[in-house]
Amino acid sequence: MFIEERHQAILDIIAEKGSITTAEIQRKFGVGYESAKRDLRLLEEKGLLKRTHGGAISVRQIAAGRPKDQTCRDIAEVRENYLAIAKRAVSMIEKNDVVFITSATVGYFMVQNLPENMPLRVVTNSIIIADEVRKKPHISVILLGGEMDGKGNCYDAFAVEMVRRLRFDKCFLTAAAISADFGMSIQKSQAITFWNAVMDSSKKSVGLFPTEKIGFNSIVSICPADRLDVLITDWNALEEDLTGFDERGIDVVVVEKEEK
What we know:
Layout: H1 3-17, E1 19-21, H2 22-29, H3 33-45, E2 49-52, E3 55-58, H4 80-90, E4 98-101, H5 105-112, E5 120-124, H6 127-133, E6 139-143, H7 157-164, E7 168-173, E8 177-179, E9 183-186, H8 192-200, E10 202-208, E11 220-223, E12 230-233, H9 239-247, E13 251-254
Parallel strand pairs: 4-5, 4-7, 5-6, 7-10, 10-12, 12-13
Antiparallel strand pairs: 1-3, 2-3, 8-9, 9-11
């Protein structure tokens, strides 16, 4: 098989499965570890995939938002890296904290794993997140109001005004993408004021960013990366993508893959 054919076959596998590992390339194509790594590096240089620690993912996963009306509850399968990040974020919450939790999928996993008997207060702009939190008797919830979008979230001036009247011990945020140079970024500008208001009202800002969102730029910057105090990512993140965050004084936490 010519190298061009192998590269196309690798891209076909990623298109079907969303990812591939270097070990899988070695087994399927009978090449060595260094050759498998070189294949992924060359394809990344062409913008056809995103390398991770141990493999690569489809660029179509990167900074791709959910369909217009799909909420964080509409999850076909649990992504283990999202769940691991969510659990690590939950471990940072202390008794009687007031915390803001993002309306994204990783935030949904967070509220599902909040401790049952720890008194605390959760603030959210998502009716879906609020509905999950209200099932836990020791946790009170503040739902930020305003004009609701199709996913059950509020970002408008009413929500911003409510945020400015509150103070959080910690806020847990994510976005379409994050890079050390461009910061946190999203595809549409409507929520920029809201997210900055949340960080202004919080003692500590924690970014929750799986590998799929690390080292990339979406269209519109929300804020510089160093507005975050902590960035939590997963075991697939490349060291070269994380170095810039360290240099900007952000505490980078890399969660380990759970043994099965």
